[in-house]
Amino acid sequence: FTTFYWANILAMEGKRKAEEMVVAMQSKRSRSELIVREGSKNTVVAAGPRRTSALAAPIMQLSGHQGDVTCGRFHPDGECLVTSGMDRMLLFWRVYGDCENFGMLTGHTNAVTEMSFNTDGSVLYSASADKTVMVWDLTTGQRIKKLKGHSSFVNSVCSARRGPPLIVSSGDDCSIIVWDQRRRRPALTLTNPYQVTSVTFNDTAEQVITGGIDNDIKVWDLRKSATLYRMRGHNDSVTGLSLSPDGSYVLSNAMDNTLRIWDVRPFAPQERCVKIFQGHQHSFEQSLLRCSWSSDGRRVSAGSSDRHVHIWDTTSRALIYRLPGHNGAVNEISFHPKEPIVMSVSNDKQVFLGEIE
After folding, report:
1. Residue 159 in contact with residue 148, Cβ under 8 Å?
2. pLDDT tens digit sequence for 175-209
3. CATH code at 297?
4. Torsion sign (Cα): 128, 90, 255, 192
């Protein structure tokens, strides 16, 4: 009797603990469970990590390109973005809602290599391997000008931040051409001994900064049409340049698998390289992998052939994000001008919008 009694007691105790465990497990809410938003009878939201942006979901995929996507930029107002690449089409997408494609510009006869908005976002400039730079009026959706002056692939284009509507482009013909949007002919042509893969204005548009296959970054004085100084440190071709939001630094991405920040202020020390970042990769494809700054200058990013999105903290130099998802080399990463959102474009023909903290 005693043995049977204690056996029943132990069995009942075990059942009670099991029931408590089931209740406890059921009380834990799933990360993907839908919950009713307070103050609303019909609106439900997904339970889970805190959202940091107005994107419809933490990750949005934009599909529509028929070839490698080589470049992508957010419009200055943050409401839309434009992407382009090997299929020669400039596709416009909405950032919010379903991120639908709402516009397309065509006209280039070869791959689009880089794009740049003017300051207010009313004009878009596109460089192409068809040896031209095109100027697009985004109010009317029409091409304003087709700038001819390069004799080979145009690798890069950049617009001035202030002053007259100036544009600078560079290409495989070893030339750097400064254009005035109000004219058809080049305003100034500079000649480099080697192919120039990336170009940007300085903050005042009085200087042009270039990078190419000779590994050096050169700063040109447009008033003297001559090189002011060179910044040496990269051991392989420079594929991307980006001026910081405050205009004091330039970011460079190179095939030596380093990302560097250079001080381009007038009276900076002779050693102008102030930060070096590592973690991304270049490959035998030798793509023009670009780089960019966040709008507050606190983060930088670089394209990478390892199919990941790489983002670093500029102060600590720590790699804070290494985001998977693409099935091809990531050619460019752009930061949203107002929200913690990044856009990545890739050789897998896809565009991703991702929410970061």
Report:
1. no
2. 999 999 989 899 999 999 999 999 999 999 999 99
3. 2.130.10.10
4. positive
